[in-house]
């Protein structure tokens, strides 16, 4: 480590050594498989806590053949579904206010008829710079066996290699519907996750848990976007103040009333630990270890399956 | 953690939390199985880095039926074998000298005819307080496929569940021969290990890797026992000085010459990291975390098999 000048302490040295050694001993990318692993093969990935992608694993699923906007609308119709609404598509994200303070901001969560959510998501997809807030149906409450249960028959009830290896049926099966404006902030989950791309495409940027020291986790005051209406001149606003980046004004046709998403501190106030470094903007808020990060990037195409290990 | 007074820093708090949480989430002892696990079952233990014992797993091995002192002597005869010799049976141990300095001391390693090694080990077993140094055949250089190769046919060439799960034949297969005076100091290995008790009995005291902060690892000057002969009056001694606990005088019949094991610093001097806390003497050299240690104790009887995960 004699070439390193930044580490100041034994602990820093140890962290540096851990990250560098991890990358010396592990491949940099995500393993690419052409067929589903056996339960034993899968368990080897779980043991090493390493992700893999299976190209085309879901090609034979009914969902792959059936799902499109028309089919989904025909099945779900105007059933109410949860939808997360954010100014720019960033759900659960770190937002810097005009005083340059950081906040952890959750979407405005509401319930809308499925057909109108799908229509909005499609319409916004066409806009390069959408004028209104971004909608993303992304609850993680086992929604495919609940509010989207009419669609559940189109997917397998479990992923056999994972169920057998982990000796557990899936705790939650979630259906997500978004568009290319939806971005999920860098985060980690305590679950083993199998993600399947049925339609469209998703870009993942994955960091191994050993890079925890790279992501500059901080305690941030939590806030939630609130949906407020106001007159042009700003009458009737909520708690006031300049919401900075957290404010979006939505012209409603040519009427004088507007819809607006406003960032509001949670009440009672609370702080949550959250990563403030983003590998896609590495110069912002780095730690001394961020430059050691080796993000694994993988794009899922239709039919692809990703094993996302716990804590990645 | 408000009941804790010892932790001084965030790091101490985090270490304490890690150890306590680990024990909250894991059983305290070693899982007991009655038959060998499948490769998939085994991989689940590897993934969780948890030990298990399979009672009687080796009962059908030829070694279990054949091996005894007479058979081993008949096969191995006077073939030269490596033997580790220490004053009290502690191989690779931490020794406090008369100035209360700690040393990491390696055995005197030599080569002797197998039949005489076995005879000495048996004879010392009969003594409650053996007068001479303790012998232990315990090399880890794949000796069962080398110096003890005549015995290799009596054991399986590999443990199938482990070979299949890990996709690797054993890197080393070792035969150890000792008696009840042999004690191995607390240490860890970077290998997945399957230990089988063919004859006799062995007591294991196992700590999970998360308890690293409990064992008070320090850099210790390394030394090796050297075998010297001297006259009664101490003429012809090596580097002199009081070797304290590291010196044992062996009366050789009623002759005037004696054999002696003397602790000698390695040349060139070097330091090695080694645990200085012993869960069997918990009041000696503890860290603030040692009291959180929950050693798993397991005794292997003849025919039992232990999976000793890497770093335990």
Automatic annotation (TrEMBL), chains A, B:
Signal sequence span is none
Q: Where is this region: Disordered?
A: 231-292
Q: Which residues cross the membrane?
A: none
For this protein, the record's InterPro entries field holds:
Cupin_8 (IPR041667), JmjC_dom (IPR003347), RmlC-like_jellyroll (IPR014710)
Per UniProt, the ranges with Basic and acidic residues bias are 231-240
**Identification of the protein by name:** JmjC domain-containing protein
- Domain called JmjC: residue spans: 144-312
């Amino acid at each position: 480590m004699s070439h390193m000048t930044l580490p100041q302490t034994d602990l820093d040295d140890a962290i540096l050594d851990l990250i560098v050694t991890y990358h010396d001993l592990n491949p940099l990318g995500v393993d690419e498989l052409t067929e589903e692993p056996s339960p034993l093969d899968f368990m080897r990935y779980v043991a090493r806590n390493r992700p893999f992608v299976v190209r085309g694993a879901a090609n034979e699923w009914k969902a792959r053949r059936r799902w499109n906007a028309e089919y989904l609308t025909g099945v779900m119709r105007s059933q109410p579904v949860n939808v997360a609404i954010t100014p720019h598509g960033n759900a659960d994200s770190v937002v810097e206010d005009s005083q340059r303070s950081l906040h952890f901001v959750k979407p405005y969560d509401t319930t809308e008829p499925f057909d109108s959510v799908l229509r909005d998501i499609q319409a916004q997809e066409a806009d390069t710079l959408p004028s209104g807030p971004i909608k993303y149906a992304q609850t993680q409450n086992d929604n495919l066996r609940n509010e989207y249960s009419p669609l559940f028959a189109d997917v397998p009830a479990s992923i056999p290699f994972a169920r057998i290896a982990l000796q557990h049926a899936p705790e939650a099966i979630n259906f997500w519907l978004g568009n290319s404006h939806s971005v999920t902030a860098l985060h980690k989950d305590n679950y083993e996750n199998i993600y399947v791309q049925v339609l469209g495409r998703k870009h993942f940027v994955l960091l191994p848990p050993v890079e925890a020291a790279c992501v500059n986790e901080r305690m941030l005051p939590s806030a939630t976007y609130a949906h407020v209406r106001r007159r042009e001149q700003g009458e009737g606003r909520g708690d006031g103040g300049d919401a900075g980046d957290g404010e979006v004004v939505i012209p409603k046709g040519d009427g004088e009333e507007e819809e607006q998403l406003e960032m509001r501190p949670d009440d009672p106030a609370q702080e949550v630990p959250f990563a403030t470094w983003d590998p896609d903007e590495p110069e912002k808020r780095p730690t001394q270890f961020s430059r050691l990060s080796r993000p694994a990037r993988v794009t899922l195409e239709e039919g692809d399956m990703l094993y996302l290990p716990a804590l990645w």
